[in-house]
Structure of Methyltransferase domain-containing protein:
Amino acid sequence: MGGFHTFPVERADALEDPSRYRYCSREELVSMLGLDDRDDSTVADLGSGTGFYTDDVAPFTDTCYAVDVQSEMHETYREKGLPENVECVTAGIDSLPFPDDHLDGAFSTMTYHEFSDPAIRSFEGTTDSFHDEALAELARVIRPGGRLVTVDWSADGQGEDGPSVDERFSISDVRRGLESAGFEVIRDDDRPETLAIVAICPE
């Protein structure tokens, strides 16, 4: 079961607002993905929208998939202009059309709350007994040792931008969700309004 909702297509222009870099810059994203010195990787942008961050990451990859459940977002992205190495994929994160271990990495910017299972917020068991379909699918398609980068609105933020606080996850929620799917969290930063987590796919 996924999160609350997807971003409204009629507000797609807002996804091109340069002020988004206040919360995550191109440099930070590329660095967290470990793409600084390689250009032969295959990476997916999870919940790509109009391709705002896809455009930033694509030059550092061989192939960058723009994954979004809304085909209308891809249409908007195509009208804007697709980089040559970007392929649009219309799919939910819990049912990705990739073979096992196909991706070297994947990232989501402000979309984790849209696809992850909100039940983790109230889950009191061990992470071994929690199953998030979207995160399990990411563990399947990212190669062993590949990176999953998550930047999202934090439940500990003020809620002045982005979704309401009750739709967000805390950094501990995200960490527990990732660990339940077998990921190893190697970095977690809780910032004033957002969180950033880098996780390694299980070997």
Remarks:
- The longest strand covers residues 142-153.
- The two ends are 26 Å apart (CA to CA).
- The chain has a mean pLDDT of 91.
